[in-house]
Automatic annotation (TrEMBL):
<feature type="domain" description="EAL">
    <location>
        <begin position="23"/>
        <end position="277"/>
    </location>
</feature>
<protein>
    <submittedName>
        <fullName>Diguanylate phosphodiesterase</fullName>
    </submittedName>
</protein>
Length: 277
């Protein structure tokens, strides 16, 4: 028994070591991913329930690793956040979106708005990138309404006045702000008071179980009603079935996003999508 204990301890530490090595290796690879053109963006259309038109899309970051293949953002974004690389990566995402959005508006959809995910650390630094984004929009003659910034609740968990000041600057300039993954945190509702919010994105976990016996349908409806009264528009995430689509539509949800509507797609396919819609 004593031996066994010793062995399992040994395996345990070996496992931990393996995990640590894997993380460090991945982080090192990520440092070169931008230069090596391994990062790209997929665009997922977001449609209006009212008329089915796709006037928005979320930019979703992808990493095609030369040896390991596709690595999920849920795996590498936390690494990027911890290491500070997220600033450079986010700036790259923003540049990419800027390169395309005006052209897409000119050729396919005047009202097109691209939603960009942002990370807390982008707002925490005193002087930083994220406020340069506004200058960039002006320089490039891109209308502020072309961009929507998605923020998550953990942004304000460490709330400092700097964060909301920056968000208010964006909003004042005409950039929309969405509270992402709404309902999953501890105090989503209190952020509605502190943050300038134009949109709420109902987390896909609510939509998923909406058709079960759970309370999630009631919660979805309550969120939509509350948002309406506050003058906030609602996007439902993770719409995977006709049934979910119909229920959300009947509840008066404004926008839908999910596999039932359209999957995230390459830049080329997104252009074809815009052309066809
Ligand atoms: P998120 O912001 O909640 O993005 C929505 C996620 O739901 C995406 O996962 C999308 O592919 C997925 N999704 C869309 N429709 C459906 C559906 O019908 N069913 C299901 N089950 N999932 C659906 P993805 O692309 O793996 O991204 C994961 C997370 O990574 C994102 O969650 C976001 O938090 C983060 N992320 C992605 N791109 C960026 C980025 O450029 N910057 C930052 N900071 N975070 C990003
Ligand atoms: Ca998002
Ligand atoms: Ca989300
Ligand atoms: Ca998320």
């Amino acid at each position: 028994a004593k031996d066994l204990g010793k062995n399992s301890y040994k395996y345990y530490t070996q496992d931990m070591q393996a995990v640590a090595v894997k993380r460090i290796t991945l982080l090192n690879d990520l440092r070169y991913a931008i230069q090596n053109d391994e990062l790209f963006i997929e665009y997922q259309p977001i449609t209006s329930f009212k008329d089915g038109k796709a006037i928005k899309a979320e930019a979703l970051l992808r990493w095609q690793h030369p040896e390991k293949g596709r690595i999920a953002p849920d795996e590498f974004i936390p690494l990027a956040e911890e290491s500070g690389l997220i600033i450079e990566i986010s700036n790259w995402v923003f540049e990419e979106v800027c390169k395309n959005v005006k052209r897409w508006q000119t050729h396919y959809c005047r009202e097109l708005q691209i939603c960009i995910n942002t990370s807390p650390s982008q707002y925490f630094q005193q002087e930083t990138s994220i406020t340069d984004w506004l200058t960039r929009l002006l320089d490039e003659n891109i209308a502020a309404r072309s961009i929507l910034l998605e923020v998550t609740e953990n942004l304000l968990m460490e709330a400092d006045t700097n964060v909301s000041k920056k968000l208010f600057q964006f909003r004042q300039a005409g950039v929309d702000i969405a509270l992402d993954d709404f309902g999953t945190g501890y105090s989503s509702i209190s952020y509605l008071k502190k943050l300038p919010t134009d949109y709420l994105k109902i987390d896909k976990s609510f939509v998923k179980t909406m058709t079960d016996v759970s309370n999630d349908k009631v919660l979805c409806e309550a969120i939509i009603v509350m948002a309406k009264k506050l003058g906030i528009k609602v996007v439902a995430e993770g719409v995977e079935t006709q049934e979910q689509y119909d229920i959300l539509n009947n509840m008066g949800c404004d926008f839908g996003q999910g596999y039932f509507i359209a999957r995230p797609m390459s830049k080329t396919n997104f252009e074809a999508f815009l052309k066809a819609h």
